[in-house]
Amino acid sequence: MKIVLQSPLDMHLHLRENTMLQTVAPYTCRTFAGAVIMPNLVSPVDSLEKLRRYKDEIMKAGKSDTFAAYMTLFFRKYTREELAQAKKEIIGIKLYPAGITTRSESGVSNFDEIDETLSLMEEMEIPLLVHGESNGFVLDRETEFLSMYQRLAEAFPKLHIVMEHITTAAAVDFIDRYPNVSATVTLHHLLITLDDVIGGLLDPDLFCKPIAKRPEDRLRLREAVFSGHGRIMFGSDSAPHPRHKKECCGCAAGIFSAPVALPMLAELFEEAGRLDLLQHFTSDIACRRYGIQPPQKTVTLEKKSWTVPELCGTVKPFGAGRQLRWSVTETV
Ligand code: NCD
Ligand code: ZN
Q1: Could you tell me where the DSSP H helices lie in 70-140?
Q2: How far apart are CA 8 and CA 27, in angstroms?
Q3: Residues near 149 by beta carbon (within 8 Å), at least 6 away in sequence
Q4: Dihedrals φ, ψ of 122, to 5°?
Q5: Model confidence over 38-72: pLDDT tens digits?
Q6: Quick check: is 64 in a domain?
Q7: Closest-CA residue to 126 (of 153, 158, 100)
Q8: Domain of 111: which CATH number?
Q9: DSSP per residue over 124-191, as a string?
């Protein structure tokens, strides 16, 4: 049995820099035709100069001529000139509330000061990608942030807003109310709930932001995805941290799912009886919503089992040690 995907895309990806970039980039660049690259580096990607340098490094590390790095700038106040220059080289601008997740310290601390830039982005048709969490109680952060999403969606009705890595039923309901809003959902949020993280023995490898939520939230995400929702697309949020930064006190947030993304999605969609929607979820929605034409890459998955390695370099991948039913057998 085979599945053939045309130009699968990962619409939310962390690749890091230096040795880590060298380790992780090939996993994505081999099996995906493109990915949206997050800008939360040690020194955030907030200028065209940094962005160009970073893109070069990614393309060298990824070693694939059928991979597009869709770059994002880290949100700050940008002038019209800066945005006009950047427009052709970016897919969007990523907004982080200050301090909400890994390397977001220089994110937005005053949401009253962002409208000028957003208005320019709306006019210039530059999408806004958002890590939508408040700094409230951890399980309520995404839901509390919905009022901000509402303000933005109503104040800037032509701005394409992408709610990144949604985890709640409330977020799914919200999207349906605003045609200018899309979302990404991760593999892990379709698979796990908070119980998998802290309900038994604490599992730092499943600790990520936003934290996995309740069974009913996972169910609503699955219902949306498996009904072929037209605005909820795949973004892995694969976020590698070396093992010693995960298995320690003060564990870093992030799940490294790039090596298993497509095989595990195939398993999940097969179990739901919706393999027919995998192409839609991993490519078509993103192409339509962002108006992109990724490089042509035909990716074949076959029913051949393999065991997820315990480590990829210094990083423990999602599902380490598990046997998976589907393998990527060919990419052309
Ligand atoms: C991400 C990271 O490590 O960069 N971590 C995570 O838990 N998802 C940042 C992010 O997307 O929040
Ligand atoms: Zn992320």
Answers
A1: 80-86, 115-124
A2: 13
A3: 130, 132, 161, 163, 174, 178, 181
A4: -60, -45
A5: 999 999 999 999 999 999 999 999 999 999 999 99
A6: yes
A7: 158
A8: 3.20.20.140
A9: HT--EEE----SS-GGGHHHHHHHHHHHHHHH-TTS-EEE-S--SHHHHHHHTT-TTEEEEE-HHHHH
Which residue matches tokens 């709610």?
Answer: 163
Place of tokens 């790039």: 258
Listed in sequence order, the residues at least 6 apart from 138 whose beta carbon sits closer than 8 Å to its beta carbon are: 211
Written as six digits, the tokens of 13 are 């990806």
Range of the domain at 137: 9-293
306 domain-assigned: no
* 8 A C-beta contact, residue 96 and residue 104: yes
Specify whether the CB–CB gap between 182 and 231 falls below 8 A.
yes
Alpha-carbon distances of 157 from 114, 122, 125, 161, rounded to whole Å: 15, 8, 11, 9
From the list 272, 182, 197, the residue with the least C-alpha distance to 235 is 182
**Tens digit of each residue's pLDDT (9 = 90 or more) over 126-153:** 999 999 999 999 999 999 999 999 999 9
Catalytic residues: 237
**What is the CA 7 to chain-centroid distance, rounded?**
17
Among 14, 100, 318, residue to substitute to test ligand 1 (most atoms within 8 Å of Cβ):
14
Quick check: CB of 102 below 6 Å from ligand 1? yes
Distance of CA 210 from the midpoint of ligand 1 (Å): 8
Residue 316: inside a domain, yes or no? no
Instruction: Report the number of distinct structural domains present in the chain.
Output: 1
Question: Is the pTM above the cut of 0.90?
Answer: yes
